[in-house]
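User: Please predict the structure of the protein below. I'd like the answer in structure-token form so I can feed it into my own downstream comparison script.

Assistant: Understood. Taking the following sequence of 428 residues as input:
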Amino acid sequence: MLDIRLIRQTPNLLDASLKRRGKEPMEALLLEIDQKLRTAQTQSQALQAERNKLAKEFGMLKRDGKDTSENIAHSEKLKKDMLEAEEAAQKYQEELTNHLAVIPNLLKEDVPTGADESENVVVRTVGTPPSFTFTPKAHFDLGEGLGLMDFERATKISGARFVVLYGMLARLERAIARFMLDTHMKEFGYLEVYPPYLVSAKTLYGTGHLPKFREDLFATDQGHFLIPTAEVSLTALVGEEIVDADKLPLRFCAYTPCFRAEAGAAGRDTRGMIRQHQFSKVELVTLCPHDKTNDEHAYMVNAAETILQKLGLAYRVVLLCSGDTGLQSQKTYDLEVWLPGQQTYREISSCSQCGDYQTRRLMARYRGEDGKPALLNSLNGSGLAVGRTLVAILENYQQEDGSIMIPEALVPYMDGMTKIDVTKNPIG
């Protein structure tokens, strides 16, 4: 959520950012509501001060045995007027908060202006896509050919956009996650966390996922929501707290399932594991002071890139343009891995800096050197999406006979196994 004081003090800052995102201006409306709110609050305070003065006069009149009826009548009228002013202030506060809750974050100046993903900027390309002496297959053909990837039974159990993995593919997915966690903990100092998969509406509001993305969430009948990403749980860990500066930066990582309704994805990636209602991800979250945000962003991107490099996967780093940058983000780098089966690069990680957009809602603060509390800045990124990494390994390490070589970095996590061979579906 943006700070109304910043909008008030910096004319055109919000509208300029919204224009770059392709959104309608909002500044004039917000400032109008803000002015009405402050007028109502000032009026309420003035009426309260006048009532306090009347109360003192009432005491003096009572002490001197004088008539207090006029004083009482005036006080009752002030009470009524003050109640009306307080109700007006509450109404304008709610109206202002509701608008601020869905307004996107302010973009960083170095975010390129563009309408959509076609105008994203490739920052660098790393590695060379593999060449094949045969036509490479897509991961779903490979997985089904191995007899270890089952979309039909998943649909029977749960419906579309689910998958069942058997045997060595299930084990490979687990190995990928363990490898990622070990790398982020041992080489980059992220603290592994096992967070809740069910969170409250308050937590989702705090991280900016409510109310804007309600249709993409799975809700329970008990008032909880399944997490769309571990970013939600990890960022909220220090909500309503003040962290000592010497504890910063806080770097968290977690391996969790993620649940998304994919409400806006009709007709997209209907086959395979690219876009599912349930998928696994190793998430990275950092909380730090404002002046460390850019450094921590580069640190997080490097951590995610290191996973791809160790797995020998070709990829590129893309700076998202203004029209493709998410609501909570000020600036986002996507990592896109090469998929031979699709002959294109596909997103496998998004690393975003969110400034104090989330922490203002969460009231996540730290105590600076001056002893005063200040809002933390939050960053989040996939380090990586585990299912998509499995997809990338299947497609990049496929052999002509349909078998899959295992990347060297994962061999220790597979008890020395170097290859997954074609087999029959283990349950027929």
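That's the full token string. The two ends are 52 Å apart (CA to CA).
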